[in-house]
Structures are given as structure tokens and as C-alpha cells.
Amino acid sequence: MADGDALPANIHCARDYEDLARQVLEAATFAHVAGGAGRDTAVAANLAALEAVRITPRVLRDLSAGATTCRLGGRPHPIWLAPVAFQELFHAGAERETARAAAATGACMVVSTLSSLPLEQVTGPDRWFQLYVQPSRDATLDLARRAEAAGYGAIMLTVDAPIHAPGLTSLRAGFRGGLTPANLAGYAPVDPAVAPGESRVFQGFLRHAPTWTEVEWLQRQTSLPLWLKGVLHPDDARTAREAGAAGVVVSNHGGRELDAAPASLAALPAIRAAVGPDFPLLFDGGVRSGQDVFRAIALGADGVMVGRLQAYALSVAGALGVGHLIKLLREELEICMALSGCASLADIAQADLGASPRSAGEDLC
Fold this sequence. Notes:
alpha/beta; TIM Barrel; 8-stranded parallel barrel
């Protein structure tokens, strides 16, 4: 715990960190984190989709041997810390604090390409590296090689953000950013200049956007498992599996890219059906409680990633806050499992979500 960090007395559930972060963060920074692309439609859809899923209680089951062990790496729980950029916005210790919390709670931390600290300075026993494809393959490969040399366990390639969509909430609040990603120092920046008559989007920003060719190339270059983050269509998930990806993150980027995108949860059941029962899937988008973790696993995920709550907890109490957040989420998950008669995450996959449980997510499109 960093000097001066302490848990406030009024935290009773994981979601309380959101209200407390509103009090400690600058208004523009909070708006930037809480908002998404456009009018925040996809952000709201993520939350609504999770809330709409009902969980039927089951009774009189022996749960004395219950556990939250995750089949992905035998981790003690299914909660990942999602890649969150520029964590110095939330705490002076930045990613170093988050890594301390991850190590203390058995959580896998996914470190962003846009981290405030160089990836080599973010240490811990269970780290993955989130990668954005760079304008040159040399820079992309160098980032992957650095992650390998620094002992990261996997590369998570973001595939749903070839261009960043503006967030009106962030812009109207006056958030300007201006931070420099430590990992990209020395690499050539994107040059969006175009010839007269060309599109600034298509011929400019998308000139170096990744395709399946880059995925196949990176797969050959790295010794680390390669995950694809930002998949919402079953065909894309199926192609990822066929291309040799280690797993997929079902995600609409927290609602921060295409504002008209479906909720991540709405896409999850169809993707699970497309890739089969054994292909690893993580879920990202709107998790605010242990019940949300349960819902995502019941509809096909092996684990979940937590982004906004992580940023909120970091801003409130540094490493102590993030560690406490993970503890709360895990205990909320365990309580939900106990009340629904589930002794394991595998049991959750068979949980009764009410009428037509496997179509619940699809109906939320």
C-alpha cells in the first residue's frame, strides 16, 4: 500500500468504488473513464444486458467443497484486470500499484500498450501484454519481443480499434489527455496525412490498420500465446480459432469504439456456440459486481475482465483499493454461487437463468 492510501469506511460492494471515484477524480477525468463513444449508447447497453439476466436460486445442495478455481491456468478466480491506459491519471504509482494488487490477489493483470510506465517496469507473477498494432511491423514486433523478454505470459492483440471514435461525454467535459505512452517512445507516430480527395479515415488512419494477415504474421513471430480482444461476431471468433489464437475476448471495448455496437453479453452465447465448449473465452463489458461475473460465465465465458472498476478503485486507494475490489468481486461471486447452488465455475455454466437461459443474451440485441 502506498503512503497515504487507506480504504474508506463506506465501501460495502464493488460498485461503491464508482461513486467514491467520482469524488476524488477531476470531473473531466471521471467523465473520460465513465463515458464511451458517441452518446454512450453501447456503455448503457452493456450494463442493461447484464442486469436483465435473472439467476434462479437452488436449495439444499452440498457446497462445502465449493471453489472459484478457473480452468484457464488454474487461477484461483476468474477475474482479470483489463488493460487500462495511462494509469497515472488515477494514482501516482500508476500501473505499479495495480500490479501489486494483482500479485496479492492472484489476478492476471493485462498491461496496456498505452501504459504510463514502460512494460518492463510493471512486474508480477501473472501478467499479459495488450498490444496495438503499430504503423510499422518492426515496432509491433519490438513490443512483442519486449513482452517476451520481460516475462509476460501472453499477448492480447486488440482488434476492434483500428481508429478511435470520439466520446462526446469526454469532449464535453473538457478532457484533453495529452499523456505520452511510455512504451511507444522512439517509435514513429501515425501520420494521417492524405492526398487531396482521399479520405482522412480510410486512406489516412486506416492505412496501417491490422488485418487477418497481421494476426497470422504475429502468430508466427511470437512464442507467447496470442489472444484477440474485441470480437463480437461468431464468424470472427471462429476465424480466430482456426488461425491458431489461444483465445478470444468477447468485448465491445467497453462501449468506447462503435456506439451502435451490441452489448458484449448479447454476443457471448452465439460466440460460445460458434467456437465450441473448449475454446477459451474471456468477457469484457459492464462488469460491476460478482453477480455480473456469474452471468457472463453462465452465458459462455471462462473469465471476465474488469476495466472501469479497476480505474475507480485505483483512484480511491491505490493498490489497496484494487486488491480490495478483487476481493469484493470474488466474494460477491461466491455468494451468488452459493445461493444458486453452484460449487464450481463449471456448475455456473449449467445454471438456471430462468426461461430460455441460452437465448437471454441474444434477446438483448
